[in-house]
Amino acid sequence: GYPSLLKREFVDVSKKTQNTSDRGQVGIDQKSTSPFKVRIFQWNLLAQALCLGADNFIKCPKEALEWKPRRLHILEELLLYEPDVICLEEVDQYEFIQSALESIGYKGTFYPKPDSPCLYCDESYGPDGCAIFHNTKKLKSISIHNVNLKKENASTNQVAIIQKLQYCNHDDASSSGQEFYVGVTHLKAREGWGEFRNLQGIYLLKKIKEIAGSSPLIFMGDFNGDPNEPVYSTFKNSDLNFGSAYTKLTEDGTEPPYTTWKIRGGRLATGSIRESCKTLDYMWYTKSSVTVDRVLKFPTGEEMGVNKLPSFNYPSDHLSLVCDFSIG
Ligand code: NDP
Ligand code: CA
Fold first, then answer.
1. Crossing angle (nearest 10°) for helices 67-80 and 94-102
2. 134 Cβ inside 6 Å of ligand 1
């Protein structure tokens, strides 16, 4: 049969004491007493049109990338951790995912890239874009804001979605009403575009402030830049006072060593193989109003195997980021 997905476990980070940069106090137990708990899932799931050709994942068997088996692994990964909110990038099979998720109580929204590279692939399913799903048993959509990212005043081919959600507990009105925002983006890819990504990030922060004000917010996505890139500092140092959820996994509060690990065809000028092991995906949260309780650990390089991602055991070259948050 088809192999099972990589096994991963949650780490409880709620008892870690805060450092001085968090809420300005030292040694405060971070455990939140807020009743508003939400599990959020973030993933660049790898566009079907791109994975078949352009991506050139030479170490991944072709059969693992065929849509029919692959789509089952995608659904398995989306549902395994029973998230309340699912934020996705590189979605070029929205209708399939939407019909599957809506049949079990999620509601989705999709915003395609203006000129998606998926449209130019040999096998195309439509443009890729960002999507957000929420569990309607627990959450209600208040508003959806589709954003075309600009670089200074020029439009770009990248997008974001910001959605306002509200808790709605049908059995207990007292634990209803809390509002918060979630957002997702997929910034421009490739080496040498760091300043372009930073300008997209600066524009995004402006839109986030316009739309969400000082409300609780979790903003995530594939930023296509590692923690040394300007766009990372732009988000980290913004006056929205963001924390990055996955830094809770490390002792020193740095980002984990990778969120994507892949091997492409061809060789670099140095003669070495094109292996890319990088941290590009983040979940930013407003530290004044959101707390991280649990974080889903990444598999080790050994667990992924010598051929890394994607594979028969995992359908994307990016790992999903999944966290439990307390809001308010
Ligand atoms: P991006 O540079 O942002 O990249 C688009 C996609 O390519 C991303 O999903 C990215 O994945 C993936 N990617 C990144 N690096 C590689 C790589 N080394 N090999 C294969 N895939 C990679 O593209 P834009 O959205 O800015 O699109 C560029 C423009 O190119 C568009 O405007 C489109 O019109 C045009 N285009 C035209 C084509 C044509 O035939 N005429 C073909 C393709 C694009 P990740 O983010 O995970 O790295
Ligand atoms: Ca990609």
1. 50
2. no
